[in-house]
Write a structure and sequence with these properties.
This protein has 386 residues and is α/β, with parallel strands linked by helices. Helices cover 30% and strands 17% of the residues. The relative contact order is 0.12.
């Protein structure tokens, strides 16, 4: 046992007496290894004061209880506050999920039709990874993806690419995605309006909600534009927070042929229903006058009942799919050329002169985006790194 030695004054010689060494405080590194935060100076001073009696009017029993309470407060872990509490909610970036799912079909199957797809949101929402982590998912989505013009609707695009089982016509060139609408009705999805000039309003809502709830964000968007737009040191703080609380993901697209074999079906995948041809006949569309003075009647005019001529007979783009919430995306397709026509050179037989032929990438795709879930296996998985 270590002891300190000291000389006793006034003795005949220098006699040495052993006295027990006072206990040394636990080093900070050891405290961190044990998961205990070292007490602050104020907490230590208060604990020592209470241990000595807490004042002239404190009784011994009160002093002991106060000392125990002070010691417990000083040893409280650092993660006791809300900012370091475990995440219990994950915020899904719905627009990012819908577009990433579409891009995954292009990367795996070569499907060039480009439109947001609700199945990406459903796969992320129903993934077991959140239950295993004890987290509750909630999705944020632009309102125009759930209800609005067909061109900006999830599973919409135009009358030829819409998924008939997922969309519903409301009248007045407005459509509804029934899958996302059901999620919003039960509170699993929250819609965010995108006013003109504020297309990032849903991203801001995602970040604000996740930071307030101390949740995690699931998105492949790094939100660098938002970090750069925060003045002062707030951008660094947001970037640091996103580095800890954002997780990327991927869609692992399987083979539809393997799914056919597994289900005992024909190895050739069946073409799923796609387009307005598989919708019920449209309701008669009344004539409306727009802000510019024009009408929705087009060249056909109106009949004697005041309805748009021809609207009873079938779907028309100039009547039922007018307008767009994203005009920059109309007709765009995945790929470097965005679906534009290009020239491809081919060498003649026997090394002869080259000849050119026109190739159009706007040829119709196989509608992988409209295949039933059991016909196209897709798995949602979190990325290991940010």
């Amino acid at each position: 046992m270590l002891a300190r030695w000291h000389a006793v004054a006034g003795s005949a010689g220098s006699s040495r007496h052993a006295s027990p060494q006072s206990p040394r405080p636990m080093p900070v590194a050891a405290a961190k290894r044990r998961g205990i935060a070292p007490p602050s100076a104020a907490a230590s001073s208060e604990a020592a004061h209470l241990a000595r009696g807490g004042g002239d009017d404190a009784s011994p029993s009160d002093a002991g209880a106060a000392a125990a309470a002070a010691a417990a407060a000083a040893a409280r872990p650092r993660n006791a506050d809300a900012s370091n509490a475990p995440c219990s909610v994950v915020v899904l970036d719905g627009a990012n999920l819908a577009w990433t799912y579409s891009a995954s079909l292009f990367a795996k199957l070569g499907c060039r039709t480009r439109l947001p797809l609700s199945r990406g949101v459903v796969l992320a929402m129903e993934s077991e990874v959140w239950r295993e982590r004890g987290m509750e998912p909630v999705a944020f989505m632009p309102a125009s993806y759930v209800e609005g013009p067909l061109h900006g609707l999830a599973d919409g695009g135009d009358l030829d690419t819409l998924v008939p089982g997922n969309v519903q016509y409301l009248g007045g060139s407005r459509w509804r995605n029934t899958v996302l609408w059901e999620m919003a009705t039960r509170g699993a999805l929250r819609t965010v309006d995108r006013p003109p000039g504020a297309r990032d309003s849903d991203d801001k809502s995602i970040i604000a909600y996740a930071r307030e709830a101390n949740g995690m964000i699931c998105s492949n968007d790094r939100y660098e534009d938002h970090c750069a737009g925060v003045p002062g040191a707030g951008g660094k703080d947001l970037r640091r927070w996103l580095r800890r609380n954002r997780r990327g993901y991927e869609f692992r697209v399987g083979s539809p042929i393997d799914a056919c074999f597994a289900a005992g079906r024909s190895p050739s995948p069946e073409v799923p229903p796609v387009g307005c041809a598989h919708l019920p006949p449209p309701p008669p569309e009344p004539e409306r006058v727009g802000d510019d003075g024009g009408t929705n009647a087009g060249r056909g005019g109106t009949n004697v009942d005041g309805f748009v001529e021809g609207s009873r007979r079938g779907w028309r783009a100039d009547v039922h799919a007018v307008g767009s919430s994203r005009p920059w995306g109309i007709g765009q397709r995945w790929g470097r050329d965005g679906g534009r026509r290009k020239k491809r050179r081919r060498r003649g037989v026997g090394g002869g002169a080259r000849r050119e032929r026109s190739v159009s990438d706007s040829e119709p795709d196989f509608p992988f985006w409209a295949m039933p879930d059991d016909h196209l296996p897709v798995e949602f998985a979190l990325k290991k790194s940010l």
